[in-house]
Write a structure and sequence with these properties.
- The complex is a heterotrimer.
- Chain A contains seven helices and no strands.
- Chain B is built from four helices and ten strands.
- The radius of gyration of chain B is 26 Å and the shape is elongated.
- Chain C is mostly helical.
- The chains are: A mainly alpha, B alpha+beta, C mainly alpha.
- At the B-C interface, helix 1, helix 2, strand 7 and strand 9 of B face helix 3, helix 9, helix 10, helix 11 and helix 12 of C.
Chain lengths: 200, 237, 568
């Protein structure tokens, strides 16, 4: 085969590997793809059942869209700060990375707090997961999403500690990049959930 | 093998059977050809002293054609099976004959209830008659089943009619059949519905047209008592 | 940037580190093998109980006792769940994939050895959770391996509150385990290949393992969502699947089969992969149409996502959906027909010898053809009206899964055992095992086809319930005797496996004279696999090259005169 020669010259046989994409990147995309299918399944179920039933507008009217909008803004901003943190880490700017990571963590926590306020308010009004199919989906989907946000906050916090202690540079920037991909994914899921649950 | 099929006493059963038969002959031929070839190769090309295997990778389309052309034939035969199946399916599941005798079917763990309109000809009125486990129908007339479930998914299966339809709680599903011959035939549940699923069965009793009318009149007369007893029995069962 | 694999200092590690918490892909493969072997014993015992009840209804089962209807349903449910998720997947993906992928691509280990260890341990926990469900109040789930709602949803219908909860948790853990495993399969096959190992030089079984992992990844998500919804229904009284609360039972069927059908290919493809390797080696011929097979696999993978509703023809879904799904379903027979024809064509003009692995591979192919052709009956919407939910379905899927999982799995074990343990298995015992298995398997399941044609519904506790089934009862008795003998026929294998570990003939590096990379290292391979980084010079199936004196040419052998001829 003609490609043999070029492969062999490109790779020194005794230490070389075919390394087009870093393994971590394949892994994180694999993980995100499986997550997409999970949320995709939930969202498809929601859409199908809602089309099928139709009678949810009454239940949906009780959702606090103002808080939902606020949370959308919070999460979008946190995606921005995360992107800035990643790019700062690429330029080896340690302090800047720590600052933006800290902001991302704060915004993530803020998102969870707002979510908690929403939940308590709704529960106090008597809307539990068992109050109707809309509420089942509402709690199910936002709850699963909030778990993902929590996971992201924990991950970002770990990187923040690393950045503050100054040991983010031993080949770990790439991992921060993956954490960033994950954080953006969590944001994208919210971008789907927000109109489906709050604006319809 | 197909002689194991039960008798067929419905009008569309013949179409179902003919699709089954078409598939049987097509895949039977493929089965024999492939297994035969496999057996022949295994015997013919077993290892012998001094004979080397033939080096053939079949990387070109011309060589791969040895498997691609049979696959293309498979594709054509598949499409003929699809065509036959689709036309049978349209007849059985996508059309409801008008002028059908209507019966409401209610499935509940672990019994079949069949409801007939009373003399007023309407469902949902006090003179409706409900019968446990026995579906009475006239021969030679289409019967429309209006099917509901009170609890879990069940499936009404009448082997001799080639009839099967799942009954799903929360939905009303219409299905139909037309029996050709008077007699008594078994029906059952073919979707796992709980511990006594195996015991959720009943009978279809096909009357000829005159008998059916007189059966219906007789049932109407004795109706009030029958309903009481039967719905009580169904709850217990 | 090069990512170096973490290779722990293995030789100095203690017992726990070396055998239990190992990160070595070969030890992890053996752990998967052990889990699947144990679970296969449980699944086999369940099949004995199921078959005994069917043959001799309501009589105490020898060695067990009376089996009631609820226990019967639980046994059927657990048999299915165990065999698909805890035997087939751990054996074909867990054990074979883990053992072979790094060795075959020429890598020292998986890309993420610790994640690999985590995935096998997750599976172990999942198995414990599943088995524990037998012992909770209410017993194991009796709702069928498909877990149709609302039967599985409302605890009052089954009485198995904890049984079904644990079933769901076990499945969730199992899915997580194989998602983690899949990361390793894909990353290792893409990124850890030895120099010269282009994608088109990968052994087909690696293609099949990776395809299976990707199919699994893309199909399981919606079912995970469904499982979460079902769990919430059961514990928080939501109503996703409860009609009275606005939910829809058919939604579960869609979510389940969107995964459930591709899952069949997830377990079938690695089995095909093993058969292809073995056909090539034991007929001393290149696989016929390597690329055609790869393209067919990929095509089948795509098609597998648009066939699920053929499980739902009579479910009450819109009947107009039946025809399109019937077309896609029957179409998927084409890529599989191509793979089967390519297998047969590989034998054509070969020089075939019949050691045990080859017998199992041939037996798998011959029986899979039965499973393949009978699938057409169920893929046709019209014939499915009659056959849906009958024993015909039971016989059909056993004829697809048994050949790929059990025949394919045994073929793989007999073939790679020398590499795994350094010794050969006994060929005479192996052949005895093969012939008994082949004969009794067919005697179990041919009667089940006849029962299905006769209209016998599956998951029925006793055939005595129906008059039209009573004359068919002798078939049940035949099938049950055969099933008992089929189970007993596995004894020679167990003896052979254990005996060969200590007394088998020492295998050497390459007992089968095979070309792929795993045969170039020691048997069993050392930690890190290869003394020197192997370099790949050619395709994996260069057997019986015309200009070469040997009838095999390893992938890693430097340029030989024959290479020029092999190039096109």
């Amino acid at each position: 085969m003609s490609s043999t020669a070029s492969v062999l010259t490109r790779n020194n046989p005794h230490n070389g590997k075919i390394q087009s994409v870093p393994i971590g990147k394949i892994a994180i995309w694999w993980f995100l793809a499986s997550e997409m299918m999970v949320f995709g399944g939930l969202i498809a179920s929601y859409v199908l059942l809602r089309i099928h039933n139709g009678g949810w507008a009454g239940q949906a009217a009780h959702v606090r869209w103002q808080l939902g909008t606020l949370n959308t803004a919070v999460l979008l901003t946190s995606s921005l700060t995360m992107a800035l943190a990643v790019s700062a880490s690429r330029q080896d700017k340690l302090r800047r990375t720590a600052v933006f990571l800290g902001l991302t963590v704060l915004l993530g926590v803020a998102f969870l707090c707002v979510k908690g306020v929403e939940y308590t308010g709704e529960l106090r009004e008597g809307f539990t997961p068992a109050s109707g199919l809309f509420w089942s989906f509402y709690y199910g989907m936002t709850g699963l999403h909030a778990l993902h946000v929590t996971g992201g906050v924990v991950a970002n916090l770990t990187f923040l500690v690393m950045a503050v202690r100054g040991d983010l540079w031993t080949g770990k920037q790439r991992r921060l990049e993956y954490a960033g991909l994950y954080w953006h994914f969590v944001d994208v899921v919210w971008i789907f959930l927000f109109p489906l649950l709050y604006l319809s | 093998m197909l002689s194991w099929l039960p008798q067929n006493v419905s009008t569309f059963g013949g179409s179902v059977d003919s699709t089954i038969r078409l598939i049987y002959y097509i895949v039977g031929a493929w089965f024999l050809a492939t297994e035969g070839l496999l057996l022949y190769f295994v015997l013919r090309y077993r290892r012998k002293q001094g004979r080397r295997a033939f080096y053939k990778r079949a990387e070109t389309i011309r060589q791969a054609a040895w498997v691609l052309i049979p696959a293309a034939i498979v594709l054509c035969l598949d499409l003929s099976i699809d065509a036959s199946g689709a036309s049978t399916w349209r007849k059985v599941k996508e059309t409801l004959p008008s002028n059908a005798v209507q019966v409401e079917v209610t499935a509940q763990r672990f019994a079949w209830l069949f409801t007939y309109p009373g003399p007023d000809g309407k469902f949902g009125t006090p003179d409706d008659v409900t019968i446990l486990g026995e579906l009475h129908v006239p021969a030679g007339k289409p019967v429309e089943l209006i099917m509901r479930s009170r609890d879990v998914i069940h499936s009404l299966f009448i082997p001799d009619f080639r009839f099967r339809q799942d009954v799903v709680p929360g939905r009303t599903i219409d299905a139909w059949f037309e029996a050709t011959r008077p007699g008594s035939y078994e029906l059952g549940c073919s979707e796992l519905c709980g511990d006594a699923h195996f015991d959720m069965r009943g009978t279809v009793i096909v009357h000829d047209a005159g008998d059916y009318a007189s059966w219906l009149r007789k049932t109407w007369r004795s109706a009030p008592a029958a309903v009481q007893n039967l719905s009580g029995a169904a709850k217990k069962g | 940037m090069k990512t170096m694999v973490v290779v722990d200092a293995h030789e100095t590690a203690g017992f726990w580190r070396q055998y239990v918490f190992s990160t070595d892909h070969k030890m992890i493969a053996k752990q998967y093998l052990a889990i699947s072997a144990f679970m296969a014993l449980v699944g086999g015992l369940l099949s004995y109980l199921i078959r005994s009840q069917l043959a001799w209804p309501e009589k105490p089962v020898t060695g067990w006792g009376f089996v009631g209807p609820d226990a019967y349903n639980a046994f059927v449910t657990m048999h299915g769940t165990i065999m698909v998720f805890f035997v087939a997947m751990p054996l074909l993906l867990g054990a074979m994939g883990n053992f072979l992928i790094p060795l075959m691509v020429g890598a020292p280990d998986m890309a993420f050895p610790r994640l690999n260890r985590l995935s096998v341990w997750t599976l172990f926990v999942a198995s414990i959770v599943l088995l524990s469900s037998f012992f909770v109040p209410g017993g194991a789930s009796p709702a069928g391996w498909t877990g149709y709602v609302p039967l599985s949803d409302v605890p009052a219908y089954t009485g198995a509150f904890w049984g079904i909860n644990l079933w769901l948790v076990a499945l969730a853990l199992e899915f997580a385990s194989f998602l983690m495993g899949g990361v390793n399969f894909l990353t290792t096959a893409i990124n850890m290949r030895a120099p010269g190992m282009t994608l088109w030089r990968l052994p087909l079984i690696v293609w099949m393992q990776v395809s299976a992992s990707v199919i699994f990844l893309l199909s399981v998500g919606p079912l995970i969502a469904g499982a979460v919804m079902l769990f919430l229904d059961r514990t928080f009284h939501t109503g996703f699947f409860v009609p009275g609360k606005g939910g829809d039972p058919l939604l579960w069927e869609h979510l389940f089969w969107f995964f459930g059908h591709p899952e069949v290919y997830v377990v079938a493809l690695p089995g095909f992969g093993a058969m292809l390797e073995i056909f090539s080696v034991f007929s001393r011929k290149p696989v016929f149409g390597y690329r055609t097979i790869v393209y067919s696999t990929i095509a089948a993978g795509f098609l597998s996502f648009v066939v699920w509703a053929h499980h739902m023809f009579v479910s009450g879904m819109d009947p107009r959906l039946a025809a399109p799904f019937s077309v896609t379903t029957i179409l998927i027979s084409v890529p599989f027909a191509i793979i089967v024809f390519a297998m047969v064509a590989t034998l054509w003009r070969g020089s075939i010898s019949f050691e045990t692995p080859m017998l199992f591979a041939l037996g798998g192919l011959a029986t899979f053809i039965v499973g393949g052709v009978t699938g057409i009956f169920l893929g046709s919407e019209a014939a499915d009206i009659y056959f849906h939910g009958t024993y015909f379905v039971v016989a059909h899927f056993h004829y697809t899964l048994f050949p790929t999982v059990i025949f394919g799995g045994f073929a793989a074990i007999y073939y790679w055992y020398p590499k795994m343990f350094g010794r050969m298995m006994n060929d005479a015992l192996g052949k005895l095992h093969f012939w008994l298995t082949l004969v009794f398997f067919n005697v179990v399941f041919i009667p089940l086809f006849l029962l299905g044609i006769g209209g016998a519904p599956r998951r029925v506790y006793t055939f005595e319930a129906y008059n039209f089934l009573k004359p068919l009862q002798p078939l049940n008795v035949i099938a049950t005797y055969a099933a008992i003998f089929l189970l007993l026929a596995q004894l020679p294998f167990l003896v052979n496996f254990a005996w060969s570990l200590a007394r088998g003939k020492v295998a050497g590096r390459n007992p089968w004279h095979a070309n792929t990379l795993e045969w170039t290292t020691d048997s069993p391979p050392p930690h890190g696999n290869f003394d020197l980084q192997p370099v790949v010079y050619r395709d994996p199936y260069e057997y019986s090259l015309p200009d070469s004196s040997e009838d095999w040419l390893p992938q890693s052998q430097p340029a030989a005169p024959a290479v020029a001829a092999a190039a096109d």
